[in-house]
Design goal:
The chain is an alpha+beta fold. It has three domains: 220 residues, 2-Layer Sandwich (BirA Bifunctional Protein, domain 2); 125 residues, YbaK protein (Alpha-Beta Complex), CATH 3.90.960; 99 residues, Rossmann fold. The protein has 14 helices and 32 strands. The strands form nine sheets. Strands 3, 7, 8, 9, 10, 11, 12, 22 and 25 form a nine-stranded mixed beta sheet that branches. A five-stranded mixed beta sheet has the order 29-28-30-31-32, with helices on both faces. Helix 1 packs across helix 10 and helix 2 packs antiparallel against helix 6.
């Protein structure tokens, strides 16, 4: 392809709202074009990269017996109402009506449609297992789209769905997808961490996120320095250090109410009472599916709203408005589980409050706190759960030896053991007859990869001050050809080189009437793996110049040797993980 015909337009600098490096370089390199917030057009270069990523994904899905098909983006609302997600999901799900006032949604995921298809055709155990996958547009009305194509409102997703006779069969198949995902990301030049994750709105019995460690990642995960345990911070558990226990709990001083006018924050209370942060009972009120919930935790921890929501099995959860608390007679800043006997209020106690010790807590009365609070004596802590955010330096609960580190990352893929969430009789009711003629419930798995996000992640990992460095497996072109000089001999050699190399490579020939400096800069910015230069000087030496974008290596070779040398280099780069 001649660059003059390829509709490639690079930018000297990116718009000011582009902050992360992938956003900057994909805009400057002419890969993407912003249409609206969180909505991008894939320009020809971006389209080629996405097609190459899709090819890698297809090859690995096909290797594990995946069968590709396509589902519509416009889904009948009644399918989503069957599973309840039509009502459970908030504004991220776009709902609309057609001209006949029939309700539809724009699919942010396709569990409902694929399960509907499956139940029409699954009859017996002989139909199972199987896996269907697609690469299809998804629509999610993100409140805060960011970082270019890392978090979008419209995006391409490879989603796959497997159907099984039982959980044992799902457990046997799940590692195949796990391994296929690792291969996909490795072929794209990335090492990922497969971490335990929260299943979120997808549900199911377990899930893993494939995370690329990156300072620009919006997700956080923990890593144990000793055993290698990895988990999303929304799922991770650390050992909570115990505070000094009472030696004689039965003779502990009695609960005492203390006047604390206008003292609400833990910092101010620490100064007022002269104690440490871990000696406070911190209480936060939420509305979970419309019901008031009081969560209590030790003052040196923060509440994980995800863990709390999962414990409550709540669909929607938010901080309780002040007026709701005041209407119940409670005052923000002075809350605690002490004396709460209202059946309309659920109390959840974090496991950090499982051991004894004199503490300070709110008195559920404006301008008053209790001191000499003993968990278990002054409020029921017989049943505790983990609702705490894990902290850097916490001891790993998995091995009990290493300390947890917190890293940032970009989620590239997510796998779920859905189980019977969508096939249950209270959902879409998908069954089959086993080999004894007994009706059984179909078990499902679900597996997703964001295609544009994967493209951006490669750029986040592989770039330098001059531009993108594409792996040979997904680069838009293999060779960036530049002819310097206006002589017929140079032009003829350029044409001959283009024709010869086109048998084995995808070539972008920069035939613009620009200076060599501009062409060299664009070659580095676009990030094609190899640059081949023909010039008057080189022609006289019977040589061409080759530059390897990844290493910066530059060498000369005879024109007839270029193809063989580049095939050798390309094969070597394809088989080595970057």
């Amino acid at each position: 392809m001649r660059l003059s015909k390829a509709f490639i337009h690079t930018l000297y600098e990116a718009p000011k709202d582009a902050e992360v490096i992938s956003h900057i370089l994909l805009l400057r390199g002419g890969y993407i074009y912003p249409v609206a917030a969180g909505i991008y057009a894939l320009l020809p270069l971006g389209h080629r990269v996405v097609q190459n990523i899709s090819r890698v994904v297809r090859e690995e899905m096909n290797r594990i017996d995946g069968v590709e098909f396509t589902m519509p983006v416009l889904n009948p609302a009644e399918l989503w109402k069957e599973t309840g997600r039509y009502f459970d999901i908030g504004e991220e799900l776009i709902r609309l009506k057609d001209r006949k006032q029939r309700e539809f949604v724009l699919a942010m995921t396709h569990e409902e449609v694929v399960t509907d298809i499956a139940r029409k055709f699954i009859r017996s155990y002989r139909d199972l297992p199987f896996m269907l996958y697609q690469i299809q547009t998804k629509i999610r009305d993100e409140a805060r789209p960011r970082a270019g194509v890392i978090r979008l409102r419209e995006f391409l997703m490879k989603d796959a769905y497997s159907f099984h006779r039982d959980f044992d069969d799902l457990d046997e198949y799940y590692p195949k997808v796990y391994d296929a995902y690792r291969k996909i990301f490795e072929r794209c030049g990335l090492r990922t961490a497969a971490i335990e994750a929260d299943s979120g709105i997808m549900g199911g019995s377990g899930s893993h996120e494939f995370m690329l460690e990156s300072p620009n990642g919006e997700d956080q995960f923990v890593l144990c320095s000793h055993c290698g345990y990895q988990a999303n911070t929304e799922k991770a558990v650390g050992v909570k250090p115990r505070i000094q226990e009472l030696k004689d709990p039965e003779n502990a001083p009695p609960l005492e109410k203390v006047h604390t006018p206008n003292i609400k924050t833990i910092s101010d209370l620490m100064e007022f009472f002269g104690i440490n942060r871990d000696q406070f009972v911190k209480s936060v009120a939420y509305l979970a599916d419309g019901k008031l919930v009081l969560a209590a935790i030790r003052g040196d921890f923060e509440i994980s709203e995800t863990k709390l929501r999962n414990h409550l099995k709540a669909i929607k959860m938010e901080m309780a408005p002040e007026e709701v608390l005041l209407d119940k007679g409670y005052h923000p800043g002075f809350l605690s589980p002490i004396g709460i006997n209202d059946p309309d209020i659920s109390v959840v106690i974090d496991s950090s409050l499982g051991d004894g010790g004199l503490m300070v807590a709110g008195a559920n009365e404006e301008d008053y706190h209790y001191k000499n609070v003993v968990p278990g004596r002054d409020f029921d802590n017989s049943t505790t759960v983990d609702i705490a955010e894990v902290r850097k330096g916490d001891v790993c609960a998995q091995c009990g030896q290493g300390k947890l580190e917190i890293r940032r990352g970009i989620e590239l893929g997510h796998t779920f053991k859905l189980g019977t969430k969508y096939t249950d009789e209270n959902s879409m009711n998908v069954t089959y007859l086993d080999d004894h003629g007994k009706e059984r419930r179909v078990v499902m798995g679900c597996y997703g990869i964001g295609i544009e996000r994967l493209m951006a992640a490669v750029v986040e990992k592989w770039h330098d001050e001059n531009g993108i460095i594409w792996p040979v497996s997904i680069a838009p072109y293999d060779i960036y050809l530049i002819v310097i000089g206006k002589g017929e001999e140079e032009k003829n050699l350029g044409q001959k080189m283009y024709d010869t190399l086109s048998n084995d490579f995808q070539i972008l020939w920069d035939d613009r009437s620009e200076s060599p400096g501009v062409k060299f800069k664009d070659a580095d910015l676009i990030g094609v793996p190899f640059r081949v230069v023909i010039s008057t000087k080189l022609f006289k030496e019977n040589a061409v110049e080759v530059k390897v974008r990844e290493t910066g290596e530059v060498f000369k070779c005879a024109p007839e040797e270029v193809s063989g040398k580049l095939i050798e280099l390309k094969d070597k780069m394809r088989t080595s993980l970057r």
